[in-house]
Amino acid sequence: MTSSNESFKENKLENTVQTTTPVISNNQNFNNLANQLSSFRSADGHQINVVRSPDKQLALEELGYKQELERKYTYIDLFGIAFSIMGLLPSISAVFYQSTSAGASSSWGWLFTSLFGILPVGISLAELGSAYPTASAVYLSAWHFAPEKFKDIAAYSVCILDSISLSAGVCSIFFSCAGQILSCAQVSNPDFVVTDGKKYGVYCAVIILGAAIGTLSGNISTRVQQASIFFNCFLLILVFIALPIGTHNNDIPFNKGKFIFGNAENFTDWSIGGNWVLNALAPAAWTICGFDSPIHMAEEAIYKPRNLKKPVLLDPQASPAAFGVILSIIGCGILGWCMLLCLYACMGPSVDAIMESSYSSIVTQIFMNSLGKKWTLAIMSLIAVGCFFMGVSLILATSRNFYAICRDRVIPPFAADWLAVVNQRTKTPIRAMYGTCVVSILLGLLIFQEQGAASLFSIAVAGFYLALIIPMALKITYARKTHEIGPFYLGKTWSYIVNLIAVGYQSFMVVIVLFPSVNHPNQEEMNYTVVLTFGLLFLAWLNYLIYQHKYFKGPRSNLTDNEFLEAVGEQHIDDIIFDDKK
To answer: Which ranges does the record mark as transmembrane (predicted)?
Structure first.
């Protein structure tokens, strides 16, 4: 042990360990608390056992991490981040071609996927985030749930998959934003030609601007999220009102319920049933994605201690991240379904005429038919702004995930230690933000290859679901009786059922998003999601086996021994610090 530890040993030993919220009675033997202890390696390199309390959501130090980020986000703000990332109208505009290729009845696929697939995943994720209130909750839970022999590789795999997913998500959203901006240029000037070079230039510009906004202080960022909530709601209400009025004024017949709920189309060479499964179920998964963002923002959330005597299923003030995840999924699932019904009711009787539109987004054609050029240009401009808000929210959450993996040295120490620094003025991880920006700009080069660009959407979903499957599957198998429980928990029976449904749905959707858009594809038509996702994961594993295993040992506390003692008390230090090995 180091000399500092020798001085710790000189402290008087007592029979209890003090925490920020003491829950252990004085006559309770410390050695009988093994089931309440979690092990972390401190910044000084010592292995530390940490006593967990019912109020652990208030004490980040009990998870072994120093409170560096400023707590400025309420549960409404966290909901706003997830709701903004989903950005219903911009997202629906991006996936409407795929949805319509299965016909108007694809709206049933949206509703089913949202409420019976994505919602169970969100509830399961909310339980993980509630048990581990930190930006690293997803891979931290995998590390805790996995058998001792596989803890590090399980957590490392989740880190890589989640990071791939978030980076691809940032790319796809800002790529859609660039497309919306260029669509406005097309509406304004029909002779304007959209090229890959122009699209990439606009993409880089908006992503750098989004990163710059994301580096601002917490006070400004929270106002941005609040503005985003109101903006997205305003945009939805505007279209819900203006589109039917414009359709009626231009004598375009409204489609009847039989068409809206029963129309099936097939604009692919798959069978009509296969096409419906592939293109009616996936759009909701692509749109209602990024709902893990409140989890990654947990270290900046404002909490209020929960009254444990009151049996409350979901207390937004005690579990703000869980509230943000669940409410955003429910809200976007129902509102998105209503928006699809509105679009299908107002699109006119000819699906072919819409699908053959020359605009990069076929929603533009619906607006042009019903509202005319000026109104279409105004709404498409607002959609572009909404899409930009989506990107700002996602790059905010992605940077927190990047900060967390750097803090735990998932990447080499020389880069990780430099990137995992919080700016003392803004209290934001500025270096991690621009690191995220660089990764997304490089990954965005895929837009120069048509199938590569299309794969960005699929990578975001496949990587996200694969990352979540690991801790959720471990929770209902190996760690079924030992997993941590947070303020939000459904109970043993319902938690098991919901997690089982979540794992099954995610496994099914991973297969779905790996399918190509055409049957028997050639080289140009191939879906490269499987190559990119598992190729990057294989390279990461190779790096881990050769080099990174020396440095990544699961969660690595950034608390020094002195800071840890200040947070949890100095008593019984021999039992708390038990290993001096690096």
So the answer is: 75-97, 109-132, 200-217, 229-247, 321-346, 377-397, 432-448, 454-474, 494-515, 527-547
